[in-house]
Protein 1
Amino acid sequence: MFGVCAAAVTLAACGGSQMQNGMLSPDIAQAPHGAPGDGLGSANAMAHSSSRKGRSWMDPAAASRTLIYGAGDVSSYVFTTGGQVIGNIAEIALSTCSDRNGDVFFNKVNSIVEYAHGGTTPIASYGVPGTAYSCSVDPTTGDLAAVVFCESGCGDSVVVLSTPGKKILSYSDSALPSLLYCAYDSSGNLYVDGYSGSQFGLAELPASGTALATITVNQNIQFAGQIQWDGQYLAVTTIIHPAVDQIQVTGSTATVVNTTELKGVGPRSTQSWIYRNKIAVPTGVVRARSTEILFWKYPQGGSPVRVFTHFIGKGHAEITGVTVSEPPKKQR
C-alpha cells in the first residue's frame, strides 16, 4: 500500500536552551514588538504574516499563552486558542508534535527541529536517516520518537536514537513493513501504526523493552493516519473521510471499541492532535488541500465547535499537522 521503507526513531528531547544529539540551527530573527496581538475572541484566523514571509516572528504575548501550532508546507503558523495568528515559524514540516515542557518539534527531511514554547529560534536540530514523518514524546522520560521514511538500504526497521553517549538501537517488525505514526501512552509504551500491504496493523515497543511486538487488530482500518494516546485508548484518525477510531489494546490484541464521526470535515485530512476534550484536524472543506483547522469535541464528535480559516493565503500552502503547546509552568 505504501511504497516506502519506514523506520521509527527515538531521541532525547532537550529542555530549556540545551542542545542534545544534534547541531543547533542558526538563529532566526525575532519578531518586532509590533507583531499582531492575541484576539482570543476570534473564531476565524485571518492571515497577518504575508509581509513577514520567509522569516519567523512571534507576538511577545505568546510566551504566557496556550498556543496551537500548525505545521505547513511553506511555513508553520502559531495561533491563540481563539484562532488569532500570533506568530509564524519559518519551517517547512511534514507534521509536528509537542511535549510537556511546551517544546514543539517539526518533522522534516533528514532532521527534526525543536523550538521552545513561543520561540522563534530553534533550540536543537536532530539528524535522522531519512524523512521524519511523525513524532511523539515519552511523558515518563522525555524521549522523542519519530517514524522515519528511509532513503535506501535501511530495511524494514525501527531505529532508536538516544542521547549522546548512548547506543543507537534498531528494531524491526516484519509483520508491519510500512510505518506511519507513533504514540507514547502515559506509561511510556510506544505504539506505531502502519500497513502490511493493505492490512492495517500496530506494533508496540514496551517501556524499557528491547523489541517491537506485533499487535493483531480486530478491524482493518482504511487510510489510517495519526495515532495518539487519549488517556484511555489509542486514537487513530483516518485521513480520507476523516473519523477517529478508539482502540483498546490488551496484550497482543487490539479492538476498535468506538468510532467518533466528524461532521463537517473535508474529504481528507492531515495529522491531527487531541488536547483535553477537543481534537484539532487540519482539513479542507472546500479545497482538496488542508487549508483550515477544525475542532470537535472529543470523543463526542458531531459538528465542529471551532474553525480556523482564511489564514493561509494564496499559493501551494497546506497545513500538514497540528499540535498544542502549553507554556512551561514557570511562565504560567
Protein 2
Amino acid sequence: MNVDALIEGLPRFVDGLMLTVMYAGVSLAIGFFLAIPVAMMRMSRNRVIYWSATAYITFFRGTPLLAQLFLVYYGSGQFYQELEIAGLWWLFREPWFCGLLTLTLNTTAYTSEIWRGGIQAIPHPEIEAAHASGLSSFSAMRHVILPRALGLSLARLYERSDLPDPGDVLGVGNIDHGHNGSRTEYSLTGFRVLRSVPVGGRAVSGARVRLYMDRTQDRSQTPPSPSSKPSC
C-alpha cells in the first residue's frame, strides 16, 4: 500500500465526504416534507390531481437517476431565454443546483409512496375517532394521521435514507468542468468510498418501530402470567 499517496489524497476524500453529506442531507430533508402533499395528491379523488401526481411519481421512479440529471441540467439550457426572463438561469446554469434539484425531486417521489402506504395502513376506526372527537380535517391530519403514518412507515423511511449514488451526481459536474479542461476527479474518488455507507439501518429502524408499537398498543390487555412464559 502506498501510504504517501493515501495521505496526499486525504483532503480530497474529506471534500468528497462533505459534498456527499450535503447532497444526501439536504435532498432527504426537503423531500421528506414535499412528499406529504404529493402523497395526498396521490390519494385524491380528483382525477386531474391524481393522475398528475401519478405521472410525476412514475417518471422519477421509473427512469435512471443519471438520465434525470442530464435531462434537468442539459434540458434546462433549451429554455435559456425563459429562465433568464424569470431570473432563474443563474441557478440552472450551476451543476450543483441541478444535481440537488434532481435528487430532491427523486427523493420526493419515492418518499411520497412511503407516506401514502403509511397513511393507508392506518385502521379506519382511528381516523373516524379523530373526526368524531371534533377535530377538523387539517387537525386530524396534523395530530393523528401523520404521526401515526410516520410510526408505521418509519422502517421504510430509514431504508430510503441511504446516501445517494454520488457518481451519478458528479457525472454532470465532471462533464461540465471537462469543457473548461479540468475534472473534479478528487470528489469522485471520495464519493466512491462512501457509496456503500448507509445513514440508517434495518436493525435500528425495526427496533424503533417495535418500540413505537409497544407504546401505542392497548394497555388494557392482561399481561401474560409467569407460568406461560417460556423457560430459559
Protein 3
Amino acid sequence: MFKSAKEAALAVVNDLGLPIFPCNPGFVDPRKNKTPLVSSGFKAATTDIEVVSTWWDKFPDAAIGVPTGCVSGIVAIDIDVREDKNGENTLAQTGYTFDASWQVKTPTGGRHIFFKHPGVPVKNKAGNFLGEGVDFRGDGGYVIFCGSNTVAGFYESIPGFDPFSTQIQDLPPDLLDKLFHKNVTEFGSERGINVGERNDSIFKLASNLVSSGVFGDELLNML
C-alpha cells in the first residue's frame, strides 16, 4: 500500500489527522522492538509534517507509534495472540463481536480495534480487560499503527476495516460501562433518566466535571 515507512507515516498524519512518533522496529535489537525512538516517547507525538519528515529521514525504517487517549481522539482494544495466550479465543468466549470501526492486524495474528475517545479520561487496562490477552489502550498509552514493519512482521489494515477508507465508531455502551466501573442502567435508574438518555447523561455529567477541573479517579468516583 505504501512505498516506504515515511510515506505511511505522512499518510497517517495527512489523511487521518493522527499525531505520531517514531518507534524502534527492532531489526538491530529485537529487545527494543516497538520502543520510542525519541526521548519523550509518545508525549512527543505530533501532526507537524516537517517534524514527522525529519524523524523518518533520520529513522527511515521506524514503526509508526500513535498515542491513544484524548491527545489523538482514539482508543484501542488490543487483542494479543502469542504461544502462551490467545486473545482472539478469549474474545470469542465473551460473545463480543466487532464488525465495524478501524481494525489492524498485528504481526502475531492479533488485532487492534479502534474507537473514538469518549471525551473523558479513560485509563489503560492491561492483561484482562475482557479476559486474558485482551487489553485496552486509553489515555497514556500507544499502539503501533498500520503501515509499520517490525522485526515481528507487518501491521496491516484488515479489509473492510481500513482506517483510510472506513469511519471510526463510538465505543459500544457496554464497553463504556466496563471502563467506568459503573452500570449504565443503575446510573439512569438512580437519577430517573430514561433508557435512551442514559449514555448522553453520563457524558454530559462527565464533561461538566472535567470542565470544573475534575479528572482521573476523582472523576470516576463521582460518576
